[in-house]
């Protein structure tokens, strides 16, 4: 089979070459999947160097852990049958999915929403599950139900990116009044997703914006890190929560910040096929929708990774494993 490969864990590029088709281990609930589309994640080519796996010798460095495709072989006990279309995110400890065939385990998968195309579906797992876990697991607010958090305010940075797009929609469904930051060209787009207030990060001073308690928020979800994360410390209320998916917030807490009782944390999303099924149901009921930036044929994988690295993608960048140029 053809696939993309990272030459070594320190490489920041990938190459296209042939590799043996993997064999599923049914005792480990593994499925063989014919891959239709994958979605790379920003910065993922640095993961192997920064987050070593327990047994690096057993892992071929194939990128892209968001996957959509058809089940070709499955354990007898699997809820997913041969011929069904599934999507999900596979475990980083194993090989990624940017190849013509890959392995997915039961707990990593969900049935693809029928209303979505292959390319649209693969944009969902990583980004939506990150938001789901930030809000309903790590924020300590409890689980999801419509309008449960009405009256609470939430700030999301990089609202036009893959995670930010889902944060706007899921938080709004949960009842949050959502404030988002983005660049000037994306203000109208982010507002169309349901944001109550959109801040242009190129012209807004977060500390000045948050000087009054009326402006401050109950929850911050940061998707950027560094200076942007540092600025969000001024926006969260006393007793609020500051969550980052980029780095621990304590690393950039302003020296002159004088707030109290703000719980802050950094987390990495874990696989959860059951939660992905809940999100799928919301998609089918047209409660939320993915946003697709661009689709690239496999042979143009370098252009796909360049677009992702540019930082200017609106939504997710997708590689079509079936398309030919």
From TrEMBL:
Protein name: Zinc-binding
InterPro entries linked to this entry: Chloroplast_QOR, ER, GroES-like_sf, NAD(P)-bd_dom_sf, Quin_OxRdtase/zeta-crystal_CS
CDD domains, A to Z: MDR_like_2
Domain named Enoyl reductase (ER): residues: 11-319
SUPFAM superfamilies in the record: GroES-like, NAD(P)-binding Rossmann-fold domains
GO molecular function, one term: oxidoreductase activity
PROSITE patterns noted in UniProt: QOR_ZETA_CRYSTAL
């Amino acid at each position: 089979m053809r696939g993309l490969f990272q030459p070594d864990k320190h490489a920041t590029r990938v190459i296209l070459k042939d590799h043996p088709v993997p064999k599923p281990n049914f005792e480990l609930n593994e499925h063989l999947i014919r891959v239709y589309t994958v979605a790379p994640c920003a910065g993922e080519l640095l993961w192997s160097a920064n987050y070593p796996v327990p047994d690096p010798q057993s892992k071929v460095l194939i990128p892209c852990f968001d996957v959509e495709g058809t089940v070709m072989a499955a354990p007898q006990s699997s809820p997913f049958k041969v011929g069904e279309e599934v999507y999900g995110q596979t475990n980083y400890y194993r090989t990624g999915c940017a190849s013509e065939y890959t392995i997915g385990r039961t707990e990593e998968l969900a049935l693809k929403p029928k209303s979505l195309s292959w390319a649209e579906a693969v944009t969902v797992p990583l980004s939506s599950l990150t938001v789901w876990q930030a809000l309903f697991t790590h924020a300590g607010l409890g689980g999801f139900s419509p309008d449960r958090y009405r009256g609470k305010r939430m700030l999301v940075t990089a609202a036009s990116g893959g995670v930010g797009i889902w944060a706007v929609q899921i938080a709004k469904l949960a009842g949050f009044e959502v404030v988002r930051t983005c660049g000037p060209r994306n203000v109208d787009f982010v507002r169309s997703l349901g944001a109550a207030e959109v801040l242009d990060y190129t012209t807004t001073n977060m500390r000045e914006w948050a000087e009054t308690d009326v402006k401050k928020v109950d929850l911050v979800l940061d998707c950027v890190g560094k200076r942007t994360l540092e600025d969000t410390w001024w926006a969260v209320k006393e007793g609020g929560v500051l969550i980052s998916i980029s780095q621990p917030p304590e690393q950039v807490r302003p020296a002159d910040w004088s707030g109290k009782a703000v719980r802050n944390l950094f987390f990495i999303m874990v696989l959860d096929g059951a939660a992905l099924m809940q999100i799928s149901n919301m998609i089918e009921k047209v409660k939320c929708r993915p946003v697709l930036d661009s689709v690239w044929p496999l042979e143009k994988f370098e252009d796909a990774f360049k677009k992702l690295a540019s930082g200017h993608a609106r939504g997710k960048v997708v590689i079509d494993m079936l398309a030919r140029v």
